[in-house]
Amino acid sequence: MALTDTRVAELKRLAESERERRDYPDGFPVLPPLPAARYVDRDFARLEHDGVFRRSWLMVAHGDQLRQPGDFLLVEQLPEPVLLVRTADGAIKAHYNTCKHRGAELVDAPCGNAGRRLTCPYHSWVYDLDGRLVGYPDAADFKALDDRDVDLTAVRCETWGPLVFINLDPDAAPLAESLEPVWSELGEMAGLDGTLHLAGVTVREVPVNWKLPVDANIETYHVNTVHRTSAAKVLDQGSTGIQLLPNGHSRMLISVREGVPLTGKMPFPPLFHEVGDLPDSGTFSYHLFPNFSIVFVGKGFLFLVTNWPIDESMSRYQVHWCSSLSSQDDDGRAANEMFVRFNQEVLFEDLSVLPGLHRSLRSGGITDVNLSYQERRIYHVHEAIDRAIGIELVPGELRVPSVLGPFVEGAS
Questions:
Q1: What is the pLDDT of residue 264?
Q2: Does residue 147 register a pLDDT over 70?
Q3: How deeply is 72 buried, as exposed, middle or buried, from its count of CB atoms within 10 A (0-12, 13-18, 19+)?
Q4: Which domain holds residue 350?
Q5: pLDDT tens by residue, 303-354
Q6: What is the spatial distance between Cα 108 and Cα 17, in angstroms, rounded to a whole number?
Q7: CB within 8 Å of 210: residues ≥ 6 apart
Q8: Is 146 helix (H, G, I), strand (E, B) or coil?
Q9: Distance of CA 126 to the CA centre of its chain
Q10: Do 138 and 226 sit in the same domain of this protein?
Q11: Is position 131 within any domain?
Q12: Please, what sign has the CA dihedral across residues 226, 231, 237, 241?
């Protein structure tokens, strides 16, 4: 369901009411400590890979990255060799980047245009853009090949407007169902392909577990410290409203300080109207389980943050910057670059402190992570991780007790 005007006003009031709160909320559970080993244990990282990243919908690309038929993009965020391709009819499909002859990689460039065919560089087996095998040399030397599964192995791929998602689990629920209620609240996203432009992509490898950047994205307890010379001048850390949502997702608004205009006259034509004035009231964001944050800067500019495990101690931090202004003209490019530059500096302030956290977690000097009420979104993600893996598969010493169910929006 889209956000009503009444609900928008309530979300703003909830954030503002936090400014006046002086005591721990009545009835809300004290969050149990998180075992620090969840951030550094190699076996737990494997459980996350198999149970979370191989079974969740993952935002991997923006449609502008492969706009023309034949354009392809390697999904470099995962260890599995997945290839995105724009087909002749304009759809985006995903396949394993694996020839069904003897397993050679079809493409080795990170992106490009394959024309009308994908041709294996090893023995010249040829596939159309839909992944069907359409030719191979010396066909007479193969018998009964037509009876075998020789088309490229497909990967589930769905789009939400300009956003491209994949899921390695062929039996996963549809994307729309998995993203609810955010799918409905941001329903306008579905119509923004070609309108919400890609203004740039930032990628950094960070020597930390993937969950540490996620944690930084979804709590504001650190704002007055880490961002004291930047975002804290505008945003009121104490006025943060948080709602836990089904499926491990969540919503947050950190209000602008009283008397401080957040956006002024924005150069970006608005694209999102159904969220009311939430994006103009502070930093408004959603987190989509497991690793994807949507952050609004007004109604016409947003950035999409994803965090990807490389191993238990290294991760890939990626930001897709999106704008209602195309960077094809000078004015649009200048406005986009200015907003990317400022917001990127704030994000990098987070990244600057995280390696020290990871070293401490790995050292054994801290065995438990102690979370406050303001940091409940972090615990919400950890509960969802255990559910995705299968609680019974998580070692007892690493398991987190489930305590937040009654506090998820819509819970009976």
A1: 58
A2: no
A3: buried
A4: 5-56+194-407
A5: 999 999 999 999 999 999 999 999 999 999 999 999 999 999 999 999 999 9
A6: 53
A7: 291, 307, 308, 309, 315, 316
A8: helix
A9: 34
A10: no
A11: yes
A12: negative
